[in-house]
Design a protein that fits this description.
- The protein has 157 residues and is mainly beta.
- The chain has a single domain, classed as PCu(A)C copper chaperone (Immunoglobulin-like, Sandwich).
- It is built from 2 helices and 10 strands.
- Strands 1, 2, 3, 4, 5, 6, 7, 8, 9 and 10 form a 10-stranded mixed beta sheet that branches.
- The longest helix is centred in the C-terminal third of the chain and has 7 residues.
- The relative contact order is 0.24.
- The protein binds copper (II) ion (CU).
Length: 157
C-alpha cells in the first residue's frame, strides 16, 4: 500500500485586472446561424464590449467564408430591410449587441471544414489598430432555432 498522495493545490491568484492598464475592448458570445441552403448567406451575431476607451469596429474578416459584411436591419415604410454598415461605434464601457432583428453579420460561402468543426474564427478590425480574434459557434438551422429561444430573439435576421 502506498502512502496517500499529498495533493498540493496550486492556488493561482485570480488575474483580476487591478493593475493600472486600461481595460481593453473585447467581443464575446459570437455565433453563426447557418443558412439552411448554401446559396443564401448565413447570419452572425456577437456582443462587443467597450473598454475604458471607445472604439469602432471597422470590419470583420474570416478565412472560413468567401465574404463577410456587417449589416443593419431597418424598418423602411413598414418593411424590414437591411443595409450594409461600414463601422460600428462601441462606446467606452458600453455594449453593442449584434443580435437577431438588428445588426448582424452576413457570411457567404462558409466552408465545410468550419461547418464540420462547428466553429469559425472571426477577425474584428478595430479603429485602435487592434485585431480581435473570436471563435464563433456555428449552429445548424434547427439547433439555432432552439438556441434562439431566449428573450428578444426574433426570426429572420
Ligand atoms: Cu443582412
Amino acid at each position: 500500500m502506498r502512502a496517500p498522495f499529498a495533493l498540493i493545490a496550486l492556488v493561482a491568484p485570480l488575474a483580476l485586472s487591478a493593475c493600472g492598464d486600461p481595460a481593453p475592448s473585447y467581443i464575446d458570445q459570437a455565433w453563426v446561424r447557418l443558412s439552411p441552403n448554401k446559396e443564401s448567406p448565413s447570419a452572425g451575431y456577437f456582443v462587443a464590449h467597450g473598454g475604458d476607451a471607445g472604439v469602432q469596429i471597422r470590419g470583420v474578416m474570416t478565412a472560413y467564408a468567401v465574404r463577410v459584411e456587417m449589416h443593419e436591419s431597418v424598418m423602411d415604410k413598414g418593411v424590414m430591410t437591411m443595409k450594409p454598415i461600414d463601422s460600428v461605434d462601441i462606446p467606452a464601457k458600453g455594449e453593442v449587441a449584434f443580435a437577431p432583428g438588428g445588426k448582424h453579420l452576413m457570411l457567404w460561402g462558409i466552408n465545410d471544414a468550419a461547418i464540420n468543426q462547428g466553429k469559425m474564427e472571426l477577425t474584428f478590425l478595430m479603429s485602435d489598430g487592434k485585431r480581435l480574434l473570436v471563435d464563433a459557434v456555428i449552429r445548424k438551422p434547427e439547433a439555432a432555432g432552439a438556441a434562439a429561444n431566449k428573450p428578444a430573439a426574433h426570426e429572420g435576421h
